């Protein structure tokens, strides 16, 4: 098992490596540090291993010498030197522990190249060493040699957990061999998790779904044994903490079944697991719920099929289960309305025993538009922070208050504003948003809003202006806002002057405040620039400073900041400043700025010379919509006529290619309504037949588009997309 390598063989070529800068906080170079690991002085050698851990897994800038070190570390491991420590180190490097590396593919490839040296460790008498070796195989991708090594070890491995891990690793190394091993591994006498892994391998190999496979897939849940919770982890795709395995094979199996059109079978598996009572039921339910959550996120038909399974679990005794159910209901939106009565029962908590859960339940009820939610919010307002955030639109709905005016809720809001000891730190700004959404109906709360001016000058002014507008209290409100604008700091003054402008229409105080803000620090500039543009022609006194900001080059100043200044200039002066903006826009387009493309769209024909620079932006979903809109704005066409082919002053893209880009945005990107409007514009005011056919195909697709980055509102965004496409086709 131990490779017989002497030190000369282990370190062959070590001195030939041109070591890059390594970032160690130690004086030794990598070559010396590697030799130290092979030292006869065990304490010194172990310290060197620790140094490599510190360097190769640092959260600081990546360690450029890692790839060069891997062959020597693998040889040391194969020769029996610090086997466990080095196996764990190589696993952590291939896994990308602690940080996303921009060289991760190279790191995995480097570890994979050393697999032949490491595979004998599958027979290591130390269980942990076998486990690390199996983990390395799982990370290294396809390898027939590794799969054959697993096959050779398969019947000799006594530990059922390791056999499960071996099968999972084999599935990555060679799915064909994994499927061969799985035929016998689904047998009832095998360990439940191994049977699950075997089922997964067989489904991947397109095996026919049978009752035997269904039984093997759920065997882990049937004994009812008490199961320890897995390590808690944060799921960035949903924004929730999960208490199941990060790489849960049951969840993966449900997804595979749904992916091959067997969504009903996947739902039946989840239902079977949820139905098992007894010890360990909390873990089993959380595991099934994770699968349900993923299915709802991936498939448009899943919520209707799976939402009924959630209803009995809303009030589950395990708070983690109940919380997870509410999170799923929050994400799926209207299709969760059949659970409204159960959610109401949790939200209607009077004893305060689990305020956090009741708060989340009330937020879900508000999201569902249930009329019973607002009275509960009014009754328990001081204890319902999450629900208050939902009430002002900070939910999957994407903006706009979800709480209609209610006299009892108005009274509760006023009472909470009068009693700061009963509210949390975020309550004032949320209450300001709520009251502002009601307008004049919230006028009785003006005294409480006035009391916030000193301590909340960034939130109270806008609420006061919205509530006082058109009422007998407008004059007093204007006087108070004027007093605040005169006395506040340069930053807070802008909020007061902005509110005063909305209330009275007087632009002079806002022009003065924004002029001061445009001369301020970065966060003041970023607040002032867009508001300068909102003034229109009244903002002309601000043009000289905005012009200076086009060339501003201070720390933290970005292309988007420069575009904000340019956009405000154009909003104030229009085509009179178009020519001087073109060089700035050209530079920004070279940096792939979507903001620059949007501004080109607004400017239109005077910016026609920039058309060639827009074409590269069509290749990314982040910039494609802005670029497409800009190109259409630059195209010359009469009303009711299809746009010419090719489009752009230099023919940068064909008519059909631009239509394909816009359809791709509808299918995968955001701002679907804008993309659809551009498609209609491309056809001269109507959809072309090919576009209609493509939109129908998108609408019929059962799969939701993949998430774009950290997209917590994936389901809601897709629901909006489907609604927008359906409405467009119905016109």
From TrEMBL:
The lineage of its organism: Bacteria, Bacillati, Actinomycetota, Actinomycetes, Micromonosporales. It comes from Dactylosporangium cerinum. It comes from the Bacteria. This is PBS lyase HEAT domain protein repeat-containing protein.
